[in-house]
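Look over this today:
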Amino acid sequence: MGVIKRQSISGTIYTYIGVVLGFITTGILFPKVFSTDEVGLLRLLVSVSVLFAQFSGLGFNAVMLRNFPYFRDNESNHHGFLLLSLTVNTVGFLIVMILFILLKPWLIEINIEKSALFVEYIFYLIPLIFFTSYFNLLDSYNRAIYNISIGIELKDLWQRLFILASILGYFFGLFSFQILVVTYTISICFPTLMITWSLWRQGEFSLRWEKGFISKPMAQEMISVSIYGIVTSFSSILILNVDVVMINYYLGLSETGVYAIAFYFGTLVLIPSRPVIKIAAILIADGWKTMDLKKIDEIYKKTNIVLTILALLMLIGLWVNIENVFKIVGDEYIGGKYVILLVGLANVFEMSTSVSQYIINNSKQYRVNTWFLILFIFMLVVSNAILIPSFGIIGCAMASTFSRLVYNFLCWFFLYRKFKLQPFDRTYLYLIGITIVSYFVAYLIPNLSNFIVDIIVRSTVLVMIFGLGVYFTHLSTDLNETFQNILKQLKLIK
């Protein structure tokens, strides 16, 4: 965990800067500047391009995570691993372009009535797919060589700054909505160019190939991992984006826009986990290489309690201020209120099993998670198809919560039965008690006339009670050590 703490500091800083920028853009400006149709368009372009881009990787991100420890060697530029990765990704992108050309008439047909705006901008998917697919690859490579923060910096800081500038330019009438879509697309593509330049500057962007390094057994394993990786990685992205696609299909762009804003607030629960999980996944892969179950168990337990604490704090902080949220985004989004709660709860379930899916993916039983994900997608699609027509966007959130609960339970149960890895103990009962007490104390504070002041006061009280409860019950030694180090830096303790 010492490595996790050191490597994730800069990533955490960029993540929280990104939180602020994301809140300004998605939480404040999107609802104020754009119509619900326009919000739906921007969200749908990203969702569809991410789905195509993930497939273009042909599952090689799974190979990167699982097999890179065997290639790691700075002197040989990791035995040509980057060139191999780029070659696979290029082949995948060409396949995806063929699929896109074949599917384009169908995409136009199903969207021409309810989502005409999407049809108008459908060709913007091509650059979005291209640059997103290569960013995914290069970011995974950066993480494999322990340069975790650059990808987070580019996506959470610079990309969001460019998006913010684009929105402000449109808001002040400097250009039309069509130009806004162009600048929005460029903002999403930009990090790929910068991460390529970063690797080149570090001397890590090498197209050298080492013939003969990959043995036949290793090649067979990599192909096997890649095949299952296609299903696993595509499934993971499909899970995150299928709701937007299905809402657009059943309800149209306007409801997609309402859901997109509500979904954004619900996903705030996940934000603290990003830098921690990225480095934890790499360390787990190293642990499996040496079959060090003790190391894996330690990462599992310590990471799990940290992420559960942070996820619960984010959720109750969000829900205790829920009325203030709609004073920010506007009454036209009030239909997404319980979407926020359900998506937030689903993400707490996600964090409460922490890195379990990464442990499975890097073990010899990695195929098991593929079947779990297939079941997850089946449940998600079927439940969405049943619930969206009856309950609208709330039905979509219900489907997501149920499906995530089942999937995460299966991951936890498999690790417990197969490897006796189990992160839960009575500590979590104390955490639940602290969460309930903190929420109700903050909830009972009388409403203040100024909603910004109300947010500050309510959130401050909540964080103080929750934080002190966690600190004095010693739920996480890592969080306590981090807090003590902050106090030492501020010269408040020796």
